[in-house]
Inverse folding.
């Protein structure tokens, strides 16, 4: 881990890698994706952040499963998830359902079966 | 002649003891001399300098040192703004008032340019001033939230190191994120 961080510091002259991570983790999901397109350092940092942010709230758009998959990498710290599910169906469950979740808001989930909803309950034991 | 010259001083001491004490404290407040990377000398009150964890540990290792402390990673311009912040902060140590502290912190960042903020971050990081770093990180996040890729690049002075193919692919992948960003 040490060497990529050193490279980050060099390429940005002065902004320390850990500080950059802290700043990006304060942004919303859309802004994280936006800064990921600025340069390779920010891109790597943004990808890394998506593996430990505690909340993922995306309600401005209804993502497709292909759009959602790279945004939700394995993340054992993910506690709160808010999604617009208008373009998702039962197959999405493997992408967004995590046993670490404490809070789950699913909007427009008409495409989900009742079976799926009960499966979510079974997989997320800590859900409040 | 000499006695008459001394007398007024004595009288002043007796009649205005509070002023004398205040002057004495100001005079005896220990100053720490710090040298920035661009060879500027700063004389900072000890209480302010102790806000810099890096400087504090320097004096913990060498308590009697009267040497000038070199700050090889710290240029003068952001450093003077960092001192300004720390002077405000120590007022709240003696007299804690969270509401007033927040107001003072937001006032501090409000009048700073984007460049000021970006230049102060490595200084706050190097000197390990946690409160300032928190304030700066949040301020920068607030300023780049919902802004265009070009805006963020110029904010940090980033060189785009993607090939045009790579950038086109990323823009396509994240196209949704660029809708409705604030105007630059």
């Amino acid at each position: 881990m040490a060497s990529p961080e050193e490279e980050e510091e060099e390429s940005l002259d002065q902004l320390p890698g850990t500080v950059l991570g802290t700043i990006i983790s304060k942004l919303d999901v859309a802004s994280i994706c936006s800064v990921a397109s600025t340069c390779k350092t920010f891109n790597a940092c943004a990808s890394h952040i998506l593996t430990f942010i505690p909340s993922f709230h995306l309600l401005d758009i209804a993502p497709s499963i292909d759009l959602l998959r790279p945004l939700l990498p394995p993340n054992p710290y993910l506690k709160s998830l808010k999604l617009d599910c208008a373009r998702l169906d039962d197959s999405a469950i493997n992408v967004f359902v995590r046993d670490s979740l404490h809070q789950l808001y699913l909007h427009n989930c008409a495409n989900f079966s009742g079976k799926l909803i009960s499966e979510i309950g079974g997989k997320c034991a800590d859900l409040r | 002649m000499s006695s008459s010259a001394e007398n007024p001083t004595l009288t002043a001491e007796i009649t205005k003891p509070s002023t004398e004490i205040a002057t004495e404290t100001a005079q005896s407040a220990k100053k720490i001399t710090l040298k920035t990377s661009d060879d500027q000398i700063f004389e900072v009150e000890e209480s302010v300098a102790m806000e810099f964890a890096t400087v504090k540990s320097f004096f913990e290792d060498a308590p009697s040192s009267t040497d000038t402390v070199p700050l090889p990673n710290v240029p003068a311009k952001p450093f003077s703004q960092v001192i300004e912040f720390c002077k405000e902060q120590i007022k709240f140590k003696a007299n804690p008032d969270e509401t007033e502290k927040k107001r003072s912190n937001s006032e501090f960042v409000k009048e700073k340019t984007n460049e000021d903020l970006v230049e102060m971050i490595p200084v706050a990081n190097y000197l390990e001033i946690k409160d300032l770093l928190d304030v700066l990180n949040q301020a920068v996040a607030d300023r780049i939230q919902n802004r265009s890729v070009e805006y963020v690049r110029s904010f940090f002075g980033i060189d785009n190191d993607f090939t045009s193919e790579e950038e086109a692919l990323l823009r396509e992948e994240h196209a949704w994120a660029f809708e409705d960003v604030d105007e630059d």
About this structure: The longest helix of chain B spans residues 76-94. Chain B has a mean pLDDT of 85. Residues 2-145 of chain B form a domain with the Potassium Channel Kv1.1; Chain A fold (CATH 3.30.710.10). Strands of chain B lie at 31-35, 41-45, 69-70.
